[in-house]
Amino acid sequence: MKKILSIPAIVLMGLMSCNSGSSDSTPGTDSTATSADSTATHDSTSMKTDTSHSSMNMASVDPLPAIPAGAKVSFKNLKDGQTATSPVKVEMGATKIAVDSASKGIKPASGHFHLLIDAGDSTATGVVVPKDSTHLHFGNAQKTASLPLTPGKHRLAIQFADGIHRSYGNKLATAITVTVK
User: Fold this and answer.
1) Distances 47 to 76, 115, 124, 179 between C-alpha atoms, Å
2) Collapsed DSSP state (helix, strand, coil) of residue 170
3) How far apart are CA 54 and CA 51, in angstroms?
4) pLDDT score recorded for residue 6
């Protein structure tokens, strides 16, 4: 009987240790005070790497939800090859799939945006999207961002992921190149 009672305590201690990372967050990316349509700002010089969400035990997690037929993501205000000025405003859109906040639970037919900056066109299906200066998370269902990019060409990719940041792969990703003046 004592063994059975100690299992919840062990699980609770494990969950608490997984969440022991820094409480610092980048404004507008995964902060609970941000609304779904607010603007996120990315400043690569002040962003700290947070990989605590990628250390979860994926063996006990539900499978990646199915992608609804016809679902896609897009840049609403930018076109491939476009010239822009910094900070670059990015508007992200999703069709036939709900934009929802990241959470511990997994909701079918929903997810949230990630922006990859000069970091490839997508993240492999089922892989947790890294959280660093080139992989921005919008876990509060944000749909816009303001990116202070250096002059030159930049590859921007939208990657959609489920509630626990697992990538839907290239089926829910799109990438463009922009030139910043």
Assistant:
1) 25, 14, 24, 23
2) helix
3) 5
4) 43
DSSP secondary structure of 93-160? EEESSEE----SS--TTEEEEEEEESS-S---TTPBPP-BTTEEEETT---EEEE-PPSEEEEEEEEE
Answer for the pair 87, 149: CB distance below 8 angstroms, yes or no: yes
Q: Is 62 helix (H, G, I), strand (E, B) or coil?
A: coil
Q: Decide: 126 and 163 in contact? Cβ < 8 Å.
A: no
pLDDT tens digits along 97-154 = 999 999 878 999 999 999 999 999 999 999 999 999 999 999 999 999 999 999 999 9
Owner of token pair 């900070």 = 87
pTM for this one? 0.71
Residue 5 has pLDDT above 60, yes or no: no
Sign of CA dihedral 153, 155, 158, 164: negative
- As to burial, measured by CB atoms within 10 angstroms (0-12 exposed, 13-18 middle, 19+ buried), residue 32 is exposed
